[in-house]
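TL;DR need structure tokens for one chain.
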Amino acid sequence: MHKAGFVNIVGNPNVGKSTLMNALVGERVSIATFKAQTTRHRIMGIYNTDEMQIVFSDTPGVLKPQYKLQESMLNFSTSALTDADILLYVTDVVETPDKNSEFVQKVAQMEVPVLLLINKIDLSNQEKLGELVQAWEEPLPKAEILPISASNRFNVAYLMKRIQELLPDSPPYFDKEQWTDKPARFFVTEIIREKILLYYDKEIPYSVEVVVEQFKEDDRKIHINAVIYVERDSQKGIIIGKQGRALKKVATEARRDLERFFGKTIFLETFVKVDKDWRSSDKELRNFGYQQE
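>> reply
TL;DR here they are.
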């Protein structure tokens, strides 16, 4: 009998959800950087074998919204509670159960299997880990608690085994050749945004959105025009940098990753434009694909 199901990954920012997603799917689907709020969309990564199909879904970190973009991000996370066959709640060795307790209460009410994953255990010790396990057993008594290290792949194979055991019997939901629900343009924007997250400080990365205006592909090469939107003229100057050096660095690093991702020669042109207060605009958020109907 064939097995298939939706395995949704939720948790607070900066606990390593995207690193775990990539380790489980075996593809670079989610951006994984050291900065919080890296994932803004709900991203699916599909793991296929002859006997099963696991549809993993990485969601933005759970947080208290400060502006409309973050409200949309929280909605993506909350929606993951309604359509999961298995829920992976990711925490780490620093976080305590009282953070975002309202969201944890919703997780506790779920009828589907919940696996609580304590990530980054390589940064802790056995005594502290035991205390954390006890602390989490109170708000999530039905959850199966599993210590992991996604970056070191510790217990990731065992986690996959448990997921396979818990999957319901079902035909596949997607074509067996498909490994994500996102189009190629989406990964261009994510890779460029990742470089901005890595190379710029403070508020700049969170004020940025990337849009692909041209994506022309043939057998050997892809021509891409991408626009980096910011909220202020001053931010535009910072993104471009002195004599354009900062933007050139971002574009060069992004092009290298895109060539590895697509396996083709990439010609990448980047532009910077100002879209004032886009993070607080319903219209602009819809245009950028954030707000759910």
